[in-house]
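Researcher: Next entry in the queue.
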Amino acid sequence: MTTIASRLQAVKARISEAARVAGRAPGEITLVAVSKTFPPKAIAEAYAAGQQAFGENYAQEGIEKIAALFDLLRQRNASPERPLLWHVASPNQDDERTPGDVRPSAGVTSPEGPLLRPMVWHHIGPIQSNKTRAIAENFDWVHGIDRAKIAERLSVSRPDDKPPLQVCIQVNVSGEASKSGVVPDAVFGLAQAIMRLPGLRLRGLMAIPEPTADTALLRSRFRMLREIRDDFLRRGVALDTLSMGMSFDLEAAIAEGATVVRVGRAIFGERGAG
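Model: Structure for this entry, 274 residues:
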């Protein structure tokens, strides 16, 4: 087993144990492997070990990796006799066959050969206005919208042949002046603006609390995000995603209701370590 595969297995075990302690099902929680600064080869190792969702913080770096992984997997799985067919990943989509299309599947074979699992790409963090088109054209998810202007540009730039971009609003739950994210009192107004945009589908909320060794304080900040989500539910807006928790705090996030955890270091190792 490769180092990345063993680390990935260890992270999944942490998620399962945290879910058990919280009285939740592990299947409620999606793991996004944050591959920022790591090469396509490392991502391919994680993919080969069963990981499907990957996160990038920088648009250009992520787009280059998306293209590189497409080429790499095409070389591994396609042949002149059997061209590789791709589809855009959509949430909660079961494996199935439809005319003229091959639906990726985890290790399943067919008379035509192996069916591929989809790679789902998440852009995480602040977005510059001049990067909106590239992100809208290449990513499946965006975690980090905190301005209506960015949401509008993403929506306009989303290609017509792709489903709406799945998005989360970033909330500043720590009150840090230097931290990206909308203040809690302004979340619902931004959500209303996003829900009017045809190129986007609002899925939930995202937060990156200030790091702290105080577990009670950390949980209170994750709880704040969940309570904001619960307020949406009371208003009749069904959000199904709470994107919160990273390598060092995923247990606290899962205890407070995280449905997506974003893990980099615990899977790929220390950045810049070679």
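Model: The domain at 3-78+116-264 is CATH 3.20.20.10 (TIM Barrel).
Researcher: Noted, moving on.
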